[in-house]
Specification:
The complex is a heterodimer of chains A (703) and B (178). With 703 residues, chain A is of the alpha+beta class. Chain A folds into 3 domains: 204 residues, Aldehyde oxidase/xanthine dehydrogenase, molybdopterin binding domain (Aldehyde Oxidoreductase, domain 4, 2-Layer Sandwich); 149 residues, Aldehyde Oxidoreductase, domain 4 (2-Layer Sandwich), CATH 3.30.365; 303 residues, Aldehyde Oxidoreductase, domain 4. In chain A, 29% of the residues lie in helices and 25% in strands. Chain A has a 7-stranded mixed sheet, with helices on both faces. In chain A, strands 1-5-4-3-2 form a 5-stranded mixed sheet. In chain A, helix 3 crosses helix 4. The longest helix of chain A is centred in the N-terminal third of the chain and has 28 residues. The two termini of chain A are 49 Å apart. Chain B has 178 residues and is of the alpha+beta class. Chain B folds into 2 domains: 76 residues, Ubiquitin-like (UB roll); 94 residues, [2Fe-2S]-binding domain (DNA polymerase, domain 1). Chain B contains 5 helices and 5 strands, in the order ββαβββαααα. In chain B, a hairpin with a 2-residue loop joins strand 3 and strand 4. In chain B, helix 2 packs across helix 3 and helix 2 packs across helix 5. The chains are: A alpha+beta (703), B alpha+beta (178). At the A-B interface, helix 5, helix 7 and helix 17 of A face helix 1, helix 2, helix 3, helix 4 and helix 5 of B.
Chain lengths: 703, 178
């Protein structure tokens, strides 16, 4: 994929990268990414943002959702190409610059929303283009447009069988009015959507040619690493540069608001220079922060009343129906994101312009952040989006870009590449928050919950609304099961460790909590864990269907293979539904996950091959965390220094993952995060089945 | 500083860098070959895997002095025969997601297949365990390595039969004399 390094004069910026100037430009605009999600009105169509058709028949599609590995370069292109009815083999793709037309300031990929927010707008855009091409052909032939059919970048007159290529029609089509309400294809007319399409980015990702942010090289570029206070919230007191400046290749040492930057003529010199840099920090209020105290604090909070986050149903009726109360307390640690490509950002700032080259999930936020840091007008600041070597929530764009711009501001127009080493990444990530929940369920005589109550203590990273962090209770208070009475209270624990989205966000911990506790209730009721959930999901057909499908595919009615044990968990989120059943064995206090059967309903499927990839990927991400993921603090510092102490799943541990998709014509749901939440409880529920031991804390510890 | 001379993807390169600079940074910053990736800096993730005289090594911990006079192969100079079979399999199975680890995965897989033309799952596990993929492409990596082994076997079969044909043709031309 090429990258658009220009301002948003689209004719101008495409001019250098599109083979032939002129042609048809087409786009849509929408007001807000977030309000765009469900059932919103058809977008107003404006020219020239998403499609360019050259006279040479090459169709250039402008991809506004960064390619983070989740497949947007392919799936967004499919949405446009399907309705445009163009020749897939003559499509090329480019990344969009930052602009309101692409969703800025929220332009980016987050919350498994890329497809959900693009499904209608991109199809409408493609369909509008198709109608304009038809109109252009009909005018040229002097016939009624209804006589025209399209396919493979041709408009054909069905009576004469004459055809005109899109390339030959593009110039004329671009002068026409953009239709407000173009006809969309019925699902039965799809050629691309719903079929397994090969990724567009594979070729450059297997020969070293894909350009990630870390690969950017500019004339005269220098390299930087940044010394930051090892304790969150600490501040710089003083530093001594003498040893650093003696390191060959070190060019300068400068102070920026975020710490002390070592500037060098290569990365290794910058790293070596920082190693001998003497810095004194005021470590501040977190100087003695440690994970034992954090955990104790959360446990104390959940035993006290908090802010009422949800109170639904009739408490008195529930109390009367309760014959037994079941209680349990669960807890999860901080998690780092650890994408394979450590964070990095190249910045160049001079008197007139600020340019940033980076792989980011949120180019819009990166832009805001750069504007704020450089102080230049927004239209003089450019973000050049690159391939992203994994995000998972870590690449929000803001703080990283601000660091690089602050450094570049002091370098008089010299471009600088700021690299976070892996040690920086684990030490200074903004983490998936710690969370702790105290459950209290009332069950009736048959063991079915009549009340579902709990108190949660979880650091907020969304900010509080009415004293509540919604992510801290998502999938916990508001969940798939419809209990007669639900009551949850919330505590913001007031810990100042920075926190952030992490693949599947609140569901990453809350599905572990809820689906483990549901399993406890099934055991209390003396019921099979799948049957128990079936009973509770009678009014949730889509979730029930994936549960039944997973149970069927794994062979739940029969015994597992010898020495293996099964566990199940379900969740819904991102507009999709997932059930996972695992088969594990235990050996010397180690759990081996052999098989994961994952059934999903994500509504209409754009690219089934991409869906399978994403579900497999999300399962591995969740399994890594369940087995070993834990960031701990001691003396205010993260104790895990590198991947040997924060070790993701490795190939030999990879279970066989089977993904089964329930056919659906509902609007698409998200899939990027869908597979992550249910894997941990499925595994710990299987461990209970094997040992009778209920694990109420992650990561899994069988000792 | 140290003057280091080595063969890189078939060409002799001479660089003048500090002796403790890991090969990774010499490749990326000094020589501009960015296909080899930085992931951890302590030989834990395998993103920086290159071949040293044909064997897989982690370039992030290999001081550049250690490659003086040696042969280095990176993703940009992947050996044509086995390497292209691996790339073809990677393409056919659509292995990469974010793709960042894949240079290292492909270098490790190519090294494995160079010494073991038909590895078992256990042998794949052992050879590939040092390469982390955060997107979790392990299942398809395994599939792609088996597929690459098939392609290599097909190629050998084809080239053997080509050789046999050529031999027979030569024999015919030589009037059947051996």
């Amino acid at each position: 994929m090429n990258h658009l390094p220009f301002k948003l004069d689209r004719r101008q910026f495409l001019g250098s990268s599109v083979a032939t100037a002129g042609g048809l430009f087409l786009g849509t605009v929408w007001h807000s990414e977030l309000s765009a999600q469900f059932g919103r009105p058809a977008p107003a169509v404006v020219p020239d943002a998403f499609i360019h058709i050259g006279a040479d028949d090459i169709v250039t599609l402008i991809i506004h959702k960064p390619e983070v590995g989740q497949g947007t370069e392919t799936s967004i292109a499919m949405l446009l190409a399907e309705e445009l009815d163009c020749d897939w083999d003559k499509v090329r793709t480019v990344f969009a610059p930052v602009d309101a037309v692409y969703g800025a300031p929220f332009q980016g990929t987050v919350g498994s929303m890329a497809i959900r927010t693009s499904w209608m707008p991109m199809r409408m855009t493609g369909a509008a283009g198709r109608e304009m091409l038809i109109q252009a052909a009909a005018t040229q032939w002097g016939i009624d447009p209804y006589r025209c059919r399209t396919g493979n970048s041709l408009v054909t007159d069905i009576e004469t069988n004459e055809s005109l290529s899109y390339g030959s029609l593009a110039e004329a089509a671009s002068t026409l009015e953009v239709p407000d309400n173009p006809r969309l294809k019925e699902a039965s007319e799809f050629n691309l959507l719903g079929t397994p399409v090969k990724r567009r980015d594979t070729a450059v990702k297997i020969n070293g040619q894909a350009q990630y942010g870390i690969d950017i090289s500019l004339p005269g570029m220098v390299y930087a690493v940044l010394a930051r206070c090892p304790v969150p919230g600490g501040t710089l007191l003083s530093f001594d540069v003498s040893a650093t400046k003696a390191v060959p290749g070190v060019l300068d040492v400068i102070e920026v608001p975020q710490g002390v930057a070592v500037i060098a003529d290569n990365t290794w010199a910058a790293i070596s220079g920082r190693r001998v840099l003497q810095v004194l920090w005021d470590e501040g209020e977190n100087a003695t922060l440690n994970s034992t105290d954090i955990s104790a604090h959360l446990h104390e909070l959940v035993s006290q009343p908090g802010v009422v986050a949800l109170d639904k149903g009739d408490a008195d009726t529930a109390r009367e129906a309760t014959v037994k109360t079941v209680e349990a307390r669960y807890e999860v640690p901080y998690l780092a994101h650890a994408p394979m490509e450590p964070l990095n950002s190249v910045a160049r700032v001079n008197a007139e312009t600020c340019d940033v080259w980076t792989g980011t999930q949120m180019p819009g936020i990166a832009h805001l952040s750069a504007v704020q840091a450089c102080g230049l007008p927004a239209d003089q600041v450019n973000i050049h989006s690159q391939y992203v070597g994994g995000g998972f929530g870590s690449r929000g764009g803001g703080p990283l870009v601000a660091e690089s711009v602050e450094i570049a501001k002091q370098l008089g127009g010299v471009p600088v590449k700021l690299l976070w080493t892996r040690e920086d990444d684990l030490q200074h990530d903004r983490f998936r928050p710690v969370s702790c929940v105290q459950f209290n369920a009332g069950v009736d005589a048959s063991g079915i919950p009549v009340s579902w109550k709990g108190t949660v203590a979880c650091s907020s990273f969304m900010g509080l609304r009415d004293g509540i962090d919604r992510e801290s209770i998502s999938g916990l208070a508001e969940l798939a099961y419809d209990f007669p009475y639900v009551h949850f209270q919330y505590h913001e624990p007031g810990i100042t460790v920075p926190t952030n989205y992490w693949r599947s966000v609140g569901l990453s911990q809350n599905t572990f909590f809820a689906e483990s506790f549901i399993d406890e209730l099934a055991v209390q009721a003396g019921m099979d864990s799948v049957d128990y959930r079936r009973t509770l999901l009678a009014d949730n057909p889509r979730l029930l269907a994936v549960l039944n499908l997973a149970a069927e595919k794994v062979g739940w009615n029969g015994p597992p293979p010898n020495g293996r044990f099964r566990g199940v968990a379900v969740m819904n989120g991102f507009g999709s539904f997932n059930a996972q059943i695992v088969e594990i064995s235990l050996e010397a206090e180690q759990v081996h996950v052999h098989r994961v059967v994952s059934a999903i309903d994500c509504g209409s499927v754009i690219n089934p091959a991409g869906v399978v990839q994403q579900v497999q990927s999300a399962i591995v991400y969740g399994l890594s965390a369940a087995l070993r993921g834990e960031i701990t603090f001691e003396q205010g510092r993260v104790q895990q220094t590198n991947l040997h102490q924060y070790e993701p799943l490795r190939l030999k541990e990879m279970p066989v993952v089977e993904v089964h998709i329930v056919a659906s014509d509902a609007a698409p749901g998200g899939v990027g995060e869908l597979g992550t939440p249910a894997i941990a409880p499925a595994v710990t529920n299987a461990i209970f089945s094997a040992t009778g031991k209920r694990l109420r804390r992650l990561p899994i510890d069988l000792a | 500083m140290a003057i280091i001379s080595f063969t890189l993807n078939g060409n002799v390169e001479t660089i003048d860098v500090v002796p403790d600079m890991p090969l990774l940074w010499a490749l990326r910053d000094t020589l501009g070959l960015t296909g080899t990736k930085f992931g951890c800096g302590i030989a834990q993730c395998g993103a920086c895997t290159v071949h040293l005289d044909g064997a897989p090594v982690r370039s992030c911990v290999l001081p550049v002095t250690a490659v003086n006079g040696r042969n280095i192969t990176t993703i940009e100079g992947l050996p044509a025969d086995i390497g292209s079979s691996v790339q073809r399999a990677w393409q056919d199975v659509d292995v990469p997601q974010c793709g960042y680890c894949q240079s290292g995965q492909i270098m490790s897989a190519t090294a494995l297949l160079s010494v073991n033309a038909n590895p078992t799952d256990t042998e794949i596990n052992s050879a590939m365990n040092g390469n982390i993929c955060r997107c979790g492409t392990y299942q398809v990596i395994r599939e792609a390595i088996h597929r690459a082994a098939d392609y290599i076997a097909d190629n050998e079969l084809a080239s053997n039969s080509l050789a046999t044909n050529a031999l027979e043709k030569n024999e015919d031309e030589a009037g059947g004399a051996v």
